[in-house]
Design goal:
Elements lengths: L2 H18 L9 H18 L10 H10 L5 H16 L8 H4 L7
């Protein structure tokens, strides 16, 4: 799946989670950490001029990241781990297979 398509899927899931309500037992700071890591991916992708098939601006990308705050704590943790993995990769423009995970609770 294309990188931007993955983030679009994440945004849709986060929006659905917001509409259905999220868990009230969310650990403090997990939402902010997930959003921050996602925002850093947006910035780094723009800095490296990664291909952008959806023509998203950095600001639009960060708006999608903000939607992650409404997702479940488990989904936030999974998305943060994926973002952190991508940030640590040699080439952020090519999602390493090791960052893909198994789909888990979010995709």
């Amino acid at each position: 799946m294309d990188r931007k398509a993955e983030w679009l899927v994440v945004a849709v899931i986060a929006t659905c989670s917001a509409a259905c309500g999220s868990s009230s037992n969310e650990p403090a700071g997990s939402s902010a950490a997930a959003v921050d890591s996602c925002n850093k991916v947006c910035d780094k992708e723009a800095e490296k001029m990664c291909p952008n098939p959806f023509m998203l601006t950095v600001e639009q990308c960060k708006q999608l990241c903000a939607a992650v705050a409404a997702a479940s704590p488990a989904c936030q943790a999974q998305l943060k781990a994926k973002s952190d993995c991508e940030l640590a990769a040699d080439n952020i423009c090519m999602t390493p297979e090791s960052c893909q995970g198994d789909g888990g609770t979010c995709m």
